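Blinded run. Sample ID left blank on purpose so nobody reads anything into the name before looking at the predicted structure. Input follows.
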Amino acid sequence: MAASWRQEAGAVEALSWAVMNEATGEGSDVLAVLRGVPDPARQAMTSIATRYSALADLLDKFSADIEAADGATAAEITKLEPR
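Blinded prediction complete.
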């Protein structure tokens, strides 16, 4: 799952919004809005990519912590006297 989140972070961050700047025409509110999309869109995509990466890192940490705890617990179980 962490690897998938890292892959998605890269895909999201790679999205290009430059085509919005190529909208041509005069006097249209819609065109004005389209031309204003790239910067906020890039900021949003960067935020989403950062979140995916952070979640992936936390999942890896959680997994490592669980493995360590599992090993410690297993060691304690093996110390129990047989019945």
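Unblinding after everyone has recorded impressions. The chain has a mean pLDDT of 90.
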